[in-house]
Amino acid sequence: MSRLPSAEDDSDVLIAVIITSTFRKPSSLLESGRKSKARYFPETSDRSVAYWLLGSAASVFGIVVFGGLTRLTESGLSITEWRPVTGSLPPRDATDWDDEFTKYRSSPEFKLLNPRMTLDEFKSIYYMEWTHRLWGRLVGISFLLPAAYFIARGKVSAPMAFKVVGIAGLIGFQGFLGWWMVKSGLKDNLFAPGSHPRVGQYRLTAHLGTAFLCYTAMLWNGLSILREHKLLADPQAATKLFERLKNPELRVFRRSVGALAVLVFCTAMSGGLVAGLDAGLIYNDFPFMGTGLAPPKSELFSDFYSHTPDKSDVWWRNALENPSLVQLDHRILATTTFISVVSLWAYTKMSPTLRTLLPAACKKGMHGVVGFVGLQVALGISTLLYLVPLPLASAHQAGSLALLSSVIILGGRTWVPRRAARLIQQQLGKSRPVPAKAIT
User: Fold this and answer.
1) In the chain, how long is the greatest CA-to-CA distance?
2) In the prediction, which pLDDT does 371 show?
3) Tell me, what's the pLDDT at 83?
4) Higher pLDDT, 31 or 249
5) Could you report the per-residue pLDDT of 4-39, keeping only the tens digit for each?
6) What does the pLDDT average to over 87-104?
7) pLDDT band (50, 70, 90) for residue 85
8) Tell me, what's the pLDDT at 186?
9) Bridge-partner residues for 289, per DSSP?
10) Which letter does DSSP use for residue 289 in this model?
């Protein structure tokens, strides 16, 4: 005869449940964490995130070009303080303008270059630098606030959330670099006595390079999201495209596009050194530099730029601080970039294998890179021959970013996105019918 359950039995069951839930396997806890993460972060980022990233990239493109104009008009040293919050507003009355002008008159630039500058002339360069700084603040705000919104609303995937946070940190670092750069032109001990007051070429190049990285990250991730949506919309076609791009015959082309992106970036950074040293104002002919293709060796590797008694730093200091060698290096890098692009384009035309395997989108992207590199070379030579006029110099700087953009777009069409490929495999696996023998 069975007995009725007692209160003691109920307590034993309760204790067993508590022990089981407390001492669960760590794998089950990790699995629940993964499920919670999956519920919060979607597998793919929303299209609106892509459009926001591309809009941010366009804004960064604009501020890079405007920053070049600020430097070319010698307006960058007109504001001698860094006030991230209170500096958002320009001077409001005559007293404020007198205060700002007094601060500028104590700077080396005013004493050595503009000792006769009037208040009205000062206002014109002040507004250039103020607009540049205000634009930088707007870039930061228009990125941080939407980033917080998209992450909080679960509109970005987990990997993209980390990338967005990284870009936000890069923007903040870029603001710091901007002031660090300007500061180098406000103190006499940071440049040679009696020389042209200007920001240090190292700091200028670091500021420019960070801006390029911000822009590239925004552009690449925005395009990646749009491409991911397009591929997931037709998994069968995407699978065929991946098989085509993974063909070993395209390995050289894929790697060449990556190397080309690095080469374009390095050429642009060498242009930053040229700008920082005003090296474009010497040897204003092409392809010659004086009486030959290069200046004399004694001029290119001068002991004047060495800072050590044994002259052990003469090679790298001349390469980074000697205007003659810096311009020659930029010419070599630019010529190498042009030859590399044309050679890669010719390879796609002359190789029967590439003509067959390379998708039409990649071929169009290659044509775009050829067009931009030709335009950039023409702008660079014209800027040099006409002694760095403002319109040509600004267009040349914009052209470098446009050329890098075209290479990045080509890479997005050539390289296989691993995450998208994995998602497509999962999607095809779910849609594959279950074999009849597996049904019990």
Assistant:
1) 117
2) 98
3) 87
4) 249
5) 445 445 444 444 444 444 444 444 444 444 555 556
6) 93
7) confident
8) 86
9) 292
10) B
Determine the 3-state secondary structure of 92 from DSSP: coil
Residue with tokens 């070599």: 332
Name the one residue in this structure whose structure tokens are 């597996």: 438
Distance CA 274, CA 268 (A): 10
Residue 387 half-sphere exposure, CB side, CA atoms within 13 Å?
A: 0
Residue 63 has a CB neighbour count (10 Å cut-off) of 22
Q: Which amino acid belongs to residue 72?
A: L
DSSP 8-state code for residue 43: S
Lookup result for tokens 């990045």: 408
* Predicted pLDDT of residue 437: 47
Q: Are the CB atoms for 424 and 236 separated by under 8 Å?
A: no
For the cut 70, the answer to whether the pLDDT of residue 410 exceeds it is yes
Give the H or E element holding residue 324: helix 323-350
Tell me what the mean pLDDT of segment 80-97 comes to: 89
Number of H helices, E strands in the chain: 17, 0
Residue 272 and residue 329: Cα distance in Å, rounded?
12
**SS3 for 292?**
strand
| Cβ atoms of residues 198 and 191 within 8 Å | yes
Rounded Cα–Cα distance for residues 235 and 426 (Å):
10
Q: With beta carbons less than 8 A apart as the criterion, state whether 137 and 88 touch.
A: yes
CB atoms within 10 A of CB 27: 8
Burial class (CB in 10 A: 0-12, 13-18, 19+), 168: middle
Residue 1 clears pLDDT 80, i.e. is over it: no
CA 172 to chain centre: 14
Fill in the amino acid letter for 292.
G
Residue keyed to tokens 């190292």: 202
For residue 337, CA distances in Å to 162, 183, 340, 400 come to 33, 33, 5, 11
> CB–CB of 330/286 below 8 Å?
no
CB within 8 A of 331, min separation 6: which ones? 286, 287, 289
Token duo for residue 124: 């014109």
The number of CA neighbours under 13 Å toward the Cβ of 250 is 22
| Mean pLDDT within 116-144 | 96
Token reading at 48: 């609106």
Query: Tokens at residue 250, please?
Result: 């395209």
**C-alpha span between 320 and 312 (Å, rounded):** 14
Q: Which amino acid is at 432?
A: R
Asked whether the predicted pLDDT for residue 193 surpasses 60, the reply is no
d(CA 260, CA 339): 11
Cα 63 from chain centre:
13
